[in-house]
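quick one, 108 residues, struct below
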Amino acid sequence: MWTVEEAKARLNGVIGGPVSPFRPDLSLDLGALEENTAAMARHPYRALLIAAGIAEFFSLTPEEIGESVAVGVRAAGATPVVGTVAFGLETGRELARRQERAGAAALL
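---
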């Protein structure tokens, strides 16, 4: 995980964020997320926000958020992935731990 100073230095420029894709039954489609993230990573984004507020974060479980970040890290290659923390102290801590284990470079 980056330090605050590293994040300030690296997060200058365009940061993208794939929208979390859902299947017709409203389950999270991690395969489609992987494809979308890989496609975005081929462009010169400074980082990608995975499962962030712009990507249905508030409709996902903590498990799905952790899985999304893990998929995003794998698909993004050298492009850093930034995750999101919210929902109060205990849930925020859980989300931070899951996303750190998944390889997020930073958290919002």
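The mean pLDDT is 94.
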